[in-house]
Write a structure and sequence with these properties.
mainly alpha; Immunoglobulin-like; Cytochrome Bc1 Complex, Chain D, domain 2; 2 domains; 7 helices; 2 strands
């Protein structure tokens, strides 16, 4: 099968597998700087194994759920935020926060990052242009990554943290 993909965006398709196993794919076009970071892995399971996998994931997500009303310290938010950034943001905005000129904007020195918290929360929840919506992240994860970016590189917001309750309120 062939399906166009865009770096930093999620894309999905479906197919009917006639056997179990792990199947690999790769983007078939040289589409840009992050071409090599678009692998495809499909793990086809039996119905029984799939049901067990879903049950395990449900147990894990409810056990790891964090209270959005809990107030976290700047250090806790920065630690969580660094992990969220590495997992979700670094491909486009780079480890340096400098972005990819002409493709993805810098977060280091950004008007959005250094502006009102509400603008950055809205950007992560709603997306803009090539920036996808990150509503799939938890309120704690969004609060943490915003706090991290506001206090990293040359951005020095100091004690200007974003708490999960602020993200929860913005979702409504």
């Amino acid at each position: 099968m062939k399906l166009d993909a865009v770096p930093g965006r999620l894309n999905q398709t479906s197919f009917l597998a006639n056997r179990e196993g792990v199947f690999y794919g790769q983007c078939s076009e040289i589409c840009g700087v992050n071409h090599a970071f678009m692998p495809i892995v499909v793990n086809v399971l039996s119905e029984e194994d799939y049901a067990k996998w879903v049950a395990d994931k449900k147990k894990g997500s409810s056990a790891g759920a964090e209270d959005p009303n809990k107030v976290l310290t700047l250090a806790e938010l920065n630690t969580k935020g660094a992990a969220v950034y590495a997992a979700n943001c670094v491909a486009c905005h780079q480890d340096s926060g400098k972005g990819v000129p002409g493709a993805f904007p810098a977060l280091d020195g950004s008007k959005v990052v250094n502006g009102p918290k509400t603008d950055q929360i809205a950007m992560l929840l709603n997306g803009k242009n090539a920036m996808p919506s990150w509503k799939t992240l938890s309120d704690v994860e969004i609060a943490a990554v915003i706090t991290y970016t506001r206090n990293h590189w040359s951005n020095k917001a100091g004690q200007n943290t974003v708490q999960a309750a602020e993200v929860l309120a913005a979702r409504k």
